[in-house]
């Protein structure tokens, strides 16, 4: 696919210069005054900044205790500080921030490793080494991201750094060569792809940052060509993971590291080749990948979510807007611009990819002036490649997962559903807690958020032992059928294969969205195990009165076929979960009376 477009290159590869260096003042001076003032204030917060120490013991903590956030927080803070200082200097251009910028460049170049402790291994799914081998750099998500941060900083302030000392750029280039370019060309890291192994957002995210690092400087032509050829192969391996419908099986939150990184790869390749890759924007798959984020949006901050994805997946901004522009999708542009205008953090202060910040700064004016009257449609859709069913009307959004338990960032959630009413969560998917060593380990499914009993799914019992769904491609929905119509949409699926017990002969779930009226969920069980217990997850507290459940002030749920209903409060203490759920959540455990249960949501 992408690799075939190399034949369109007619001239030597040029350097990537999409935004002006600080020494080219016209475009920096032309930025809106409020943006310039804010960028300077952001930089002033880091004047005389004491960059946090990163010790060997900090690095070892992940292996010893499983905690990954304390090391990562300090590493990310170093890069965030540098970004803010660089942008402030680009705007003000008086040298006031240069000393702190140079300190930041030095401490990052002094780090013995740029990869995270959680990624400190050479082979996929193998135990991490307790400390890095400095003779063999690992290129992971954040070593590649660090390379792009340093590259963009050096590119923007090349002349200003040279005026202090030419050895600053020499130091950055030496680090990039030894830590990134040489291992990239000589080693095979799993995320590069081989045409057989399963890829995920790592493939395109790392590739994007390799390209940003390599083509923002004047490397030898032969080295540029080798990097480009290897990069486009990885892009194709990434695209092989997608169906033609463009659905991201990792969810909206990870789309920012998947589909949007694909866009930036294409954007960069076109910039350095005089649009040799521009025809890719006309491909249906690329257009569908771009529009995915609009299709899974529910309302305001909320998105359809399954697996590790949070329902609060972040605001759209410049990258979504520009992807819409390149694929001629005006609805996506309007959606991204509108969301950006509502953003609580339009300049993305928590983002440490400096290039993303540049995209935001130089697209800000266009997004803020975008016509708000353009109609944005959230349509009904069936994503066959992943098995996601979406049905909407003026009040409800119903999402059903009808795929398998082999998604990237998988939860055992096949057959689960979520419902939003008037833009607010009614029946929910919890998401994932803060990453720890256990999150990506053989013990992953010991974590409660990953288990089917904490999704809107049945649990079976053998005596007192619960039988839950298992992970893997064979654990899947079968006999899936769906129908869209003007008055109602429906889906039916068989869930017996999602559970590892042949005594479950059948568990058929059907969901019917009667537009403008209600949603009906009906489950039918056949088997030799006792009647299952259905879990239902809520954000607003459910109040049970007989067979009628009031869900806060949002709506009601009527139950037919319940022998018993028990309510549990689940405290939300994890910081990552707190970004989506500001208070505790609730679980109802509904024991089925016999074979059938019916839920009517109004």
From TrEMBL:
Pfam families xref list: Hepar_II_III_C
InterPro entries in UniProt: Chondroitin_lyas, Hepar_II_III_C
Subcellular location as annotated: Cell envelope
Protein name per Swiss-Prot or TrEMBL: Heparinase II/III family protein
Leader sequence residues: none
Residue ranges occupied by any Heparinase II/III-like C-terminal domain in the UniProt entry: 380-463
Principal subcellular localisation of the protein: other
